[in-house]
Amino acid sequence: xxKNISPRFFLEKHTLDGAFGTLAIEWGNxxxxxxxxxxxxxxxxxxxxxxxxxxxxxxxxICANTFGANPLKDGRFEEDVKAAVKIARQAAPDAFIALDTxxxxxxxxxxAEAFDAAVKxxxxxxxxxxxxxxxxxxTMTDLKELRAALIAAKDTGKPVMCSMSFEENGYTFFGxxxxxxxxxxxxxxxxxxxxxxxxxxxKMFPLAERLQAVSPVPxxxxxxxxxxxxxxxRTVYDESAEEFEAAMQKIASLGIAMLxxxxxxxxxxxxxxxxxxxxxxxxxxxxxxxxxxxNCVKTDGSTLTVGERINPTGKPLLKAALADGDxxxxxxxxxxxxxxxxxxxxxxxxxxxxxxxxxxxxCVNALAGVGLPLVIDSSNAETLEAALKVYDGKALVNSVSGxxxxxxxxxxxxxxxxxxxIGLCLDDGGVPSSAEERVLIAERIIERAVSVGxxxxxxxxxxxxxxxGAGRGNANxxxxxxxxxxxxxxxxxxxxxxxxFGMPDREDVNAAFxxxxxxxxxxxxxxxxxxxxxxxxxxxxxxxxxxxxxxxxYIAAKSGFVKTAAETEATDADLRTAIISGLSATAAKAAKRxxxxxxxxxxxEKYIIPALDEVxxxxxxxxxxxxxxxxxxxxxxxxxxxxxxxxxxxxxxxKRFVICTVQGDVHDIGKNIVKAVVKNYGYRVIDLGKDxxxxxxxxxxxxxxxxxLGLSALMTTTAENMARTIELVRRDFPxxxxxxxxxxxxxxxxxxxxxxxxxxxxxxxxxxxxCRFE
Amino acid sequence: xxYSVEGVSRLLTDxxxxxxxxxxxxxxxxxxxxxxxxVRNRFELCGDKIVGTNITLFGKDIKRHLQxxxxxxxIAATVGNEADDExxxxxxxxxxxxxxxxxxxxxxxxxLCDETEREIRAxxxxxxxxxxxxxxxxxxxxxxxxxxxxxxxxxxxxxAGITVNxxxxxxxFKSVTAVMGVCERFGGKAFDCNDCRFKAVCSHKLCAR
Lengths: 774, 209
What we know:
The structure holds 2 protein chains of 2 kinds. By secondary structure, chain A is an alpha/beta fold. Chain A contains 29 helices and 25 strands. The longest helix of chain A is centred in the C-terminal third of the chain and has 22 residues, at 626-647. Chain B has 7 helices and 7 strands, in the order H-H-E-E-H-E-H-H-E-H-H-E-E-E. Chain B has helices at residues 5-12, 21-33, 60-65, 81-93, 95-126, 147-154, 156-160, and strands at residues 37-46, 49-50, 71-78, 130-131, 163-164, 170-171, 175-183. Chain B has a 5-stranded antiparallel sheet with strand order 2-1-3-7-4. In chain B, strand 1 and strand 2 (49-50) form a beta hairpin. In chain B, helix 1 (5-12) crosses helix 5 (95-126) and helix 2 crosses helix 5 (95-126). Chain B starts with a helix and ends in a 26-residue tail after the last strand. The chains are: A alpha/beta, B alpha+beta. Chains A and B meet through helix 12, helix 24, helix 25 and helix 27 of A and strand 1, helix 4, helix 5, helix 6 and helix 7 of B.
């Protein structure tokens, strides 16, 4: 029978048990690396003895021997869980039994479906027994896996404590930062957060201190008994029980009342820990924060910048990139905005003709490399949900409105995935013109959001910027509503640049409005950080705010502008030389100059393509090497981008090349090089990405036909998937040209599966020239 | 090819050039980015099973490679997740550098294994024993499907941050696992690239030590 855990439970003193594996290896005379969950079936008596030893040493939370019985890797976990919980209960009837969840060692894929599968597996794990009292998730290093486990745990209704393993620098192996961990875990309902494993008790102190300072919920700490050393083939740890006790005493003095041990600790260590007097203190507050896996941003200080440029509306080049699966363009926009001072990135990929959900999830995954927290912007609830599944951190959902349908669909999604949410002050009646009416809608949204479990700190109200040119008083309405909404204890957000719509010198109007909003206490400004007026206005406002160090920042920001301008000055060189030498900035500049003389198409045909051919020939004859070929492709691309911009979207040669890495394969370097080289020859390359199932390839061929298909595989195992893909596509398109490439392929294997072998990117260009495209 | 500016240059140019500026940039950047980690453990071997683990050594090639061995060392080495992130970022901004960096990271992962192999070999020699060269999943007919169990046996996720997906691909990408046999005196024939069924087409070149 499971025990009832009171709400105050985690505020009390508790002692968790120590290492299981260490004792199992010693007492059971087992080899290192032994899968200890097997003991539940093979040697239950040993499991029981270990639990009893910890219980007798003073532990009142006993972890069932399920750490290694992970649902993502082990087919027999249900049996193990049932047996383990039963044994733990028998060994320590008065203790609280925790179902112990360890990291699986399995990579959770990047798709929403892979995340769902992980949540489902953990759900089964937690449902395998009902005899435990609480859930412990520990030793996690991957925030994605922790999130999956937490969401499944939340569904059980049992209280959850969770911890990750950090290195001394405060990041896990997978680059999850301590603050991001706390914010994400608490937003997903963890009752207590902790750190365990990886470090000894002494080295864990600074991390425990940081954790205690930021956590709004009780904290627990389970260090190793020092650092491991190998002695005569056995792993031993270098902290004695006395040393461990002394260090834990220090950790307890921070106000941390739940303590235990990890690798290398024994009942002797736990006995000493159990005697340490301690009282729980809560060191942090919930506050308003958003995070990516490695970057936690507080939104309750001065106005932060949300970069608005990842949005295809009115941007033909971005539209074309999104339509063709060119996610790198999105990453470049993210990196540029970060460089220009964005604190968060808004991501909107809503446009006709694409699968918004699929493109959004690819963008969210790719933008993890930029590191800024994301604002997931879509009017489609399904897209929002998929993005929140794959997003590692705490995102901001943009948005919910006062419309009944929106409230009903969007708020529960934000709540389930622990996201914050933007509420738009509009409803079925449209956008009210008065500030008062907007505030009424805001009140309704806040009430509903709170009722589904979203904290007020996580609600951001958008009081809506309407063009001042379209109606006098629009600026004031937004600002006045903002001031009123702030008093309700929520955060605020505004899209700044709408204000100047239809007016000349929009940047000036935007900068002035930006300052008005900051004055009114705006939390998040959605703007284009790349516009110098806004950046200058931001720096000047900071300077005038009287904040310490602001003058220095202002001067630094200003000298930064000058420096950037100077750096973009490239050397003079003709377009051909620039491309052949792989100089992107120079090639772009040269292309711009050429546009004074001839049309964009002429520049491409007379200069860029011949230069690329020259490089291709040089590569083919062994005079040039792959790095030069790629650098030339990059430089040609920089020149092509200039031409595209001049034409408002570059025309292609009408020939579509659908390309991807086949299912099961996540190696995409070769595919990306082919894409870069081929694109410059005017082919429209539609990149389906990596690990693409045959059915999706077929669907793309149907959509883009007539076209040529390019498939890449790097591993012997996935070469088989390539054959399967070709077989499926061939059924509907027997005459389609299919080019294949990748490390393990040979011309004869390619032929046997019905593809044309391409040695490399250069070879692909020559093979493409022979394809029919009809 | 060794992990060095020269090694990276040679690998990028089919051995023809000993110095490329981009190789130097890639190595410099990798040295700032990489967080290398290696885990290793010694196990007893019983037939084709590694004692205490779920590992079965499938395939003729590994059996021949471990002939006469009563013990094995398992190792897993990684350049770290930060290098993966850097490759992702570089792909968007500088494809040539991304490619060179990727190549450098592969060489570095291999160099970590070389170093570990040397250390273990010295230890074994001190015990008066012999260590076979290292053998990885995917060599010859030793299937990739053994990869997860090698990582689980080493507890590599917890100790080095290496995980593996259903298709047996590791994350971080630039990670390597290997098996080395321990014997009194090696009478078998160590596996080398000439024994590999992919000899003719292999473009990894990494196994061409």
